[in-house]
């Protein structure tokens, strides 16, 4: 390795990126900085659920104590013309399109393919890459994830691959070092609580445990020109957050089962299909 280069760990707080700290130690590789792309729902509401917010605080303290490196939290500052010290999901959501067939409308929810929200995570790293010419970036890709090896290069390296660490080994290391995220120990979802890719059970739990977040998601749903969930077949309109609200309320009222195997969306519109429990 070139001693003139700066060595930076990209931290997501998942087991693999955290375990990179152990693999780096084992390999004897240099480590100068640890960076994390922090996403916010609004100016005051994080994208992470409370258990994950608290875990990040604890992990940062452990990392500072053991490795003597302060984790740097960065935010997106420029997303498709939206420029702020901290660009949030809500900023992008309500950004008015300046061109194209939907000119004059807000973006609303991201599309399934090529979602604009990905830029909230990528923008901070682009800024860092530009300011740190010659930096080597460490990525949390395990040795048993060959499908991801294509992103690796001389500038993007995986300590886990070099050390031969599997995903299972990463989890074991995190458990031993008090750095296992709550997403692996309970039903708390990792990633953004408003993500359109999350499953029904996660949406159900969000509504139950964090009604204030669910209320905001319903407000966004009212304003969005794009459905929350993309249609699964041609000719369909997809499903909105309000569709899921109707479904979960019907479950609460014992009109339908919460069992995904028996649920059909038609149950919400055809009273004869309701089942009493």
Describe the protein's architecture and organization:
There is one protein chain. α7 crosses α8 (211-223). The protein folds into 2 domains: 7-184, 3-Layer(aba) Sandwich (Rossmann fold); 200-273, no CATH class. The protein has helices spanning 15-27, 50-67, 89-93, 118-131, 159-163, 167-176, 200-209, 211-223, 241-252; strands at 7-10, 33-37, 71-74, 78-79, 82-83, 136-138, 156-157. The protein is globular and about 65 Å long. The protein has 277 residues and is of the alpha/beta class. It is built from 9 helices and 7 strands; from the N terminus they run βαβαβββααββααααα. β1 (7-10), α1 and β2 form a beta-alpha-beta unit.
Q: Can you identify the CATH class of the largest domain?
A: Alpha Beta
- Work out the number of β strands: 7
How helical, in percent, are the residues? 25-40%
What coarse outline follows from CA principal-axis ratios? globular
Low-confidence stretches: none
* Share of residues in strands: 5-15%
What is the correct CATH architecture of the largest domain? 3-Layer(aba) Sandwich
Instruction: Give a short account of the largest sheet.
Output: 5 strands, parallel
Distance between the termini: 65 Å
Arithmetic mean of pLDDT? 89
Give the helix/strand class.
alpha/beta
Strand order of the largest sheet: 3-2-1-6-7
Query: What is the CATH T-level topology of the largest domain?
Result: Rossmann fold
- State Rg: 21 Å
CATH superfamily label of the largest domain: HUPs
Helical segment tally? 9
Order of helices and strands: EHEHEEEHHEEHHHHH
In total, the number of domains comes to 2
């Amino acid at each position: 390795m070139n001693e003139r280069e700066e060595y930076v760990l990209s931290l997501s707080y998942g087991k693999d990126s955290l375990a990179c700290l152990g693999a780096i130690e084992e390999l004897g590789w240099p480590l100068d900085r640890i960076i994390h792309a922090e996403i916010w729902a609004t100016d005051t509401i994080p994208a992470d659920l409370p258990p994950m917010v608290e875990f990040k605080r604890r992990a940062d303290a452990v990392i500072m104590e053991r490795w003597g490196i302060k984790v740097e939290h960065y935010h997106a500052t420029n997303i498709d013309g939206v420029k702020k010290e901290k660009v949030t999901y809500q900023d992008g959501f309500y950004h008015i399109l300046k061109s194209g067939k939907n000119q004059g409308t807000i973006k609303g929810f991201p599309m399934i393919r090529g979602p604009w929200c990905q830029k909230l995570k990528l923008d901070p790293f682009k800024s860092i890459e530009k300011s740190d010419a010659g930096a080597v970036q460490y990525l949390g890709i395990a040795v048993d994830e060959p499908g991801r090896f294509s992103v690796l290069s001389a500038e993007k390296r995986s300590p886990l691959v070099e050390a031969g660490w599997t995903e299972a080994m990463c989890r074991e290391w995190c458990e031993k070092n008090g750095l296992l995220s709550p997403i692996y120990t309970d039903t708390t979802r990792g990633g953004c609580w408003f993500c359109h890719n999350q499953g029904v059970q996660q949406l159900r739990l969000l509504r139950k445990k964090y009604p204030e977040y669910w209320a905001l998601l319903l407000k966004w749903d009212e304003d969005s020109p794009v459905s929350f969930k993309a249609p699964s077949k041609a000719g369909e309109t997809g499903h909105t957050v309000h569709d899921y609200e109707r479904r979960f309320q019907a479950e609460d009222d014992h009109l339908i089962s919460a069992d995904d195997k028996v649920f059909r969306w038609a149950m919400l519109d055809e009273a004869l299909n309701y089942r009493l429990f």
